[in-house]
C-alpha cells in the first residue's frame, strides 16, 4: 500500500504538483481551502515545527540517546560543506505534505485538517515521541522512541498497533530513503515482550537485500541497552512508478 | 505480547485485583490517585461513554451498516431472556481497565491519564470510529470502521500503522472472546490498496483453527460492498496463564 507517499515525495520534488490533483481529493473530513494573500505571506514566513527536536517531555534516556546519535551526525556550518559524520537526523512534521520537497511551504497554502497519524496529538509526551537517524550508507536506521500514556493497549503497556505504527514508520522511512517512491507490501511482526508506557526503546532497521524493485528490511525493538528484545519484524517494500502513485 | 489484557480481563473477573499490583505499576506519565469518598460515590454513579454507539460524526455508510448488524443482534428485554440473534455488539471504552469485569467502576476509583490507543482522541470522527459485532458461535467478528482525518499516512489516505492497529483490535477482541486470556504472538499484514481518509470499510476476522494453546485468525479489510480488497492479514494468539499475565 502506498503508505509512504509523504516520505517518498521528499525525494521526488517533481511529484509534488500531483498532490493538488484529484488523485488525492480533499474529503469532507480533511477539507482544504486557500487563505487570503496577506495571511498567506505571513504564513509562508512562519516556521513549521520539527517534531524530531527535543521538547520538555523527553526523559533522561531519550535525551541521552538523542545526544549520542546527534553527536555522530552532520554538523551544518555556514559556507562550508557539512562534515562527514556517521548518522543523519531526519526531520519530522505533523502533515504528510510537509515531507515533500517544498512541502513545508505548500502545506501553508493547501490548508487541511488532516494530520500525520504519529504526530496528531499536540501535547508533548502524550503519544509518540521519536527521532530517527539514518546512516550515511543507508544500510541502517535507528529510532529513539518514548511511548506516552495515550498509547495504551494492555493496562500500563503500549498497544500492539502503536508498536506496528512505529515499525511501519521506521522501515518506511528507511525504504524511501533508499528508493523513493516505494509502496509497503508486507509487514510481519513478532511480539515478544510488552513495552511499558512511559519507557524509551530503540527501533533499529537494517536493509537485508534488494531484488529488482523489491526491498527487504528487518527491524527490531529493544530496550535501550539492548538486553531485552520486545519485537522483531520484517517489511517488504516495492518501488513504484509515478503512474502507480497517481492511482492511489 | 500481552496486548489484549484489557479485553482478556473481560472474561477473567478474578484477575482484576492484579491490576492494582506492581505488575502494572503506575508511571509518571500515567500516574494514578484515589479521589475523596464523596467524589468517589458521585463518580461511581456516572456512566462511562460507550464509544461503539453512534455519534454525530458517523456517516451514512457507517450508520447503514451499524443498523444492519444491530438489527441482527441481541435485543435486551426486561424480565425475559435475550432473543437469540446472529450477532452481538461489543461495547468500547477509552481505558483498558474498563474492559475488565467491574472495570468501569474500578476505573472511576483508579484514576489515570492512560487512554486506550484507539480511543485517545475526544473529538468525534477525528480518528478511529468503529464498532465490533461478534457472531454467536464466535467463528467470526465484523468491524465497521470509519477513518478520520487524524489517521493520515500518505496524503489523503490512512496510515498503514492505523490499519495495523484496527486489525490488531479486531483479531485481538475475537481471540479473547474465544479463549481469554491470550497474548498476540504474530501479526502478518499484506497491504493491497490504500484506504482514503474519511471512508468507511469493513474489517472481518475468521477463526481458522486452534492448536493446543494457539489460535489462528485471518482478517481482511474491504470496501463496504466487498468489491475492493484493501488489506489481508493473519494473526496468531496464544492462551496464557495468570502467572504469565503477572510478568507483563
UniProtKB/TrEMBL annotation, chains A, B:
One GO CC term on file? ruffle membrane
Gene Ontology MF, one: hydrolase activity
For this chain's UniProt record, which GO biological process terms are given? apoptotic process; fatty acid metabolic process
Where are its TM segments located? none
Pfam families linked: 4HBT
Q: How does it sit in the membrane?
A: Peripheral membrane protein
Give the signal peptide as a residue range, or say none if absent.
none
Superkingdom of the source? Eukaryota
EC numbers listed for it are: 3.1.2.2
Which InterPro entries does the entry mention?
Answer: HotDog_dom_sf, THEM4/THEM5_acyl-CoA_thioest, Thioestr_dom
Question: Thioesterase domain: from which residue to which, for each copy?
Answer: 156-227
Q: What's the chief localization of this chain?
A: membrane
The subcellular location is: Cell projection, Ruffle membrane; Cytoplasm; Mitochondrion inner membrane; Mitochondrion intermembrane space
Q: Which reaction does it catalyse?
A: decanoyl-CoA + H2O = decanoate + CoA + H(+); tetradecanoyl-CoA + H2O = tetradecanoate + CoA + H(+); hexadecanoyl-CoA + H2O = hexadecanoate + CoA + H(+); dodecanoyl-CoA + H2O = dodecanoate + CoA + H(+)
Top EC category:
hydrolase
Alphabetically list the UniProt keywords.
Answer: Apoptosis, Cell membrane, Cell projection, Cytoplasm, Fatty acid metabolism, Hydrolase, Lipid metabolism, Membrane, Mitochondrion, Mitochondrion inner membrane, Transit peptide
Q: What family does the Swiss-Prot or TrEMBL record give for this protein?
A: Belongs to the THEM4/THEM5 thioesterase family.
Supply the name of the protein.
Acyl-coenzyme A thioesterase THEM4
Q: Which organism is it from?
A: Oryzias sinensis (Chinese medaka)
